Amino acid sequence: MSVKPGSLGGESGVGEELGVGQDTAFRGDRTDEQALTGATSSPRPSRRGLLAALAILALLVLAPLLGLPSWLVFLFTVAFAKGLVVLGVVLLLRGDLVSFGHGLYYAIGAYAAGLALRAGFPLRDAFPLAVLGALAGAVLASIVGLFLARYRGIFFGMLSTAFSMILYSLLLKLYWLTGGTDGIAVRISSTLGLQPPADLIRLTQYYFVLALVVGSVYLAYRVAASPLGYLMRGINDNEIRVEYMGASVRRAIYRTYVLSGALGGLGGALTAITVGHIAPDLAYWTASGEFVFIALLGGSGSVFAPFVGAGVFELVRNYAQKASPYTWQMLLGSVLLVIILFAPGGLWSVFERLVGRRPTGSAGGPEKRPAKERRWALSSKR
Amino acid sequence: MDQIAIVVLNGIVFASYLFLVSAGLTFIYGVMRILNTAHGSIYGLGAYMGAWLIVRLWPGGSGALPPWTSFLVLLLAGVFIGLVVGPLMERLFIRRVVDRGEVISLILTFALFLILDDVMKLIWGVDPLLADMPYSMLGSIPLAGITYPIYPFLLTIVAGLAALVMWAIINRTRFGKLVTAVIADREISSALGINVPRIYSFAFTLGAILAAVGGAFIAPMSSVVPGISIEVIILSFAVTTIGGLGSVGGAAIGAIMIGLLRAGAVQYVPELDLFVIYALMTLILLIKPRGLFGGVEARRI
What whole-number distance in Å separates Cα of residue A156 and Cα of residue B25? Predict the structure, then answer.
């Protein structure tokens, strides 16, 4: 268990304790729900995992060169951008917090980029706009997080939804600023200073987004393996015990939330740049529901899972929407149902089971445990 | 003065609508601890069923049955949908996750919501259903200096009756006593011989009937279109969190607050008509996370 000592002040020891105690001391409190929201697979690197990651990365880099059609390149670019938002949702899920309002950050990132361009932001390049989106997400999350870090369970979800709906109603009605339902066109003039010919623009953006995804995945991976990551898993198990060990649950949640907001803003800005158009729907509650959906589809067992989930989601949606425009939501809903009832660890856990990497914890599987009622409690006010 | 009267009138009408769609939601949550996203879909199904029957029985606004029976038809349409969809949904899906926590049930019902949204398109197509016969039949009256349609008042009466029925069921029947016991402590109730799953079934069906009847009676006021459930559910989330999840009385208060606030906003600052709703929801959640009438829950170790 390699925990960097001292990187989170006095909390690092606690993180280590929790990591070690994960599957023994806290077993008694695990509920079915946690099998879904916090898979127990360890974030420690394994050689096999690293090799698999590198292989996937190589495949993703080479795929467009080996004749992946342009529309699929575009589809995956959007999927990866969404995957970044989902990654943020998953980081919170690991602490048993379901953000049913991440459309807030998705939209704020997108509109930060769009409005900056419209207001005559001098750097019309993709990179500074992506940074701007991430910053907007982080700043907003550092304010909203002050309130949200006190909430758990259904109340966390409801308050997240309320915040995102506030943004939605503003984006919709402040016509002079946002153009209302017409939205805003987002036109960038270059990507990392490159101005590729028209037929290579999509490819450039694909690699640009992929690079940012790789960076974010690495960051998320480091965070999951850091004391903060272990704290979140401890919170998933029993936050009151975490507090009794001397760590601040609220601070851990707050930090994770700000990071999650930054990822959401980044994903929003990248979507805006890629798609070229933004509208208030990005903040609507159905968008937020979609992120939670993808998070569960992929599972929270790995930092790669959100991108697998997003890729599969966009592919399925694309084909289903074409094949049967009136029943594609039904298909999505059915998939979600099956996952909740039969594979709570998401696609990733199915994959792990297939290749025999299934961790010893309780990730995935409709294991029958004695039903235990779990009551949500707000953390005590101090 | 007239303006204020109109705001109050519109507010009450909107509140009636909100109460009808959220009373069942909050009741189900109170009993089962399930936040049912698919509640909006039951509302939509009720609206479609009601509108479809009206269009079928009175094509072009006239039919063999006397027009006043249309209200009966609307009521029956709602009750029918509630009686069919409620138990089915509860038995097949909700029951499986009732012990797995609120968040799981929120996501499961979101899946049901997605499915039912398409079910409506499959059954009734994607063209809007216009069933304004009961609405135009009642006409309008001069009120506060303008002519005000009468039908919205019927909606208020329906909402009032629904509230009364809910109150009577909870406070004056054996089932109500059992429900109160289950709300207070599920395990003890079960130990005392109460058939808790059956209470759950009844409670869920009752909530479903409320939503479907609400949908059926709202159908004549607007055209019934695909996606009708999407806005309803988020509005009723706002109402129920303001009133306190689980409290039917709270839902009434929440509905009146939002109704008046929105009517005022529409009149004076129309750009903010949605904003005020969610701002109020956020504010209440920040000050009283369990809503105005939500209970307190102890921290458990």
Answer: 19
Say if the Cβ atoms of A240 and B122 lie within 8 Å: no
Terminal C-alpha separation, chain A: 33
Question: Is B287 exposed, middle or buried, given 0-12, 13-18 or 19+ CB atoms closer than 10 A?
Answer: exposed
Among A168, A286, A332, the residue with its CB nearest the CB of B230 is A286
CB contact under 8 A, A173 and B104: no
Strand partners, B146: B143
Instruction: List beta partners, residue B141.
Output: B148
Q: In whole angstroms, give the CA distance from residue B223 to residue A337.
A: 31
**Amino acid at the residue A173:** K
User: A82, A294 in Cβ contact below 8 A?
Assistant: yes
Which residue type, as a one-letter code, is found at position A270?
Answer: L
- Say how many residues make up chain A: 382
**Contact at 8 Å (CB) between B158 and B16?**
yes
Beta-bridge partners for A62: none
pTM: 0.85
The C-alpha torsion from A114 through A305 and B106 to B102, rounded to 10°, is -120
Nearest by CB to A336, from B103, B111, B241: name it. Answer: B111
- State the pLDDT at residue B137: 85
Two tokens, residue A26? 């806290």
CA dihedral for B256, B258, B260, B266, sign (positive or negative): negative
Is B237 in Cβ contact with A336 (below 8 Å)? Answer: no
For an interface test with B, the pick among A166, A174, A294, A327 (most B C-beta atoms closer than 10 Å) comes out as A166
Q: In chain B, what's the furthest Cα-to-Cα distance?
A: 66
Residue B297 region, left (φ>0) first, then alpha (ψ -120 to 50), else beta? Answer: beta
What is the rounded distance in angstroms from the CA atom of residue A282 to the CA atom of residue A164?
9
Task: Looking at the complex, report in whole angstroms how far the Cα of residue B146 sits from the nearest Cα belonging to chain A.
Answer: 28
Nearest to A31 among B101, B119, B186 (CB): B101
Q: Is A380 on the interface with B (CB under 8 A)?
A: yes
Q: Give the total residue count for chain B.
A: 301
Tell if the CB–CB gap between A337 and B93 is shorter than 8 Å.
Answer: yes
Question: Which residue type is seen at B273?
Answer: D
Helices (H), chain A: 12-21, 32-37, 47-62, 70-93, 103-118, 126-148, 153-173, 175-178, 201-224, 227-244, 249-275, 285-298, 305-323, 328-342, 346-354
Q: Say which of A166, A327, A329 has its CB closest to residue B279.
A: A166
CB contact under 8 A, B103 and A375: no
Q: Closest Cα partner for B253 from B295, B298, B292, B212?
A: B292
A199 interfaces chain B, CB cutoff of 8 Å:
no
Sequence-ordered list of residues with C-beta below 8 angstroms from that of A9, at least 6 positions apart, any chain: none
Chain B residues touching A36 at Cβ < 8 A: 100, 104
Task: Name which of A255, A281, A258 is nearest A268 in CA terms.
Answer: A281
CA distances to A40, A87, A349 from A358, rounded to whole Å, are 10, 21, 7
Give me the domains of chain A, ranges plus CATH numbers.
Answer: 9-23+44-282 (1.10.3470)
Residue A275: both structure tokens together: 């798609």
Could you read off the pLDDT of B117-150 as tens digits, one per residue?
999 999 998 899 888 888 888 888 887 677 888 9
Q: What is the ipTM of this complex?
A: 0.90
> pLDDT per residue over A292-349, tens digit each?
989 988 887 788 889 989 999 999 888 888 888 888 889 889 988 988 888 877 887 8
d(CA B259, CA B192): 42
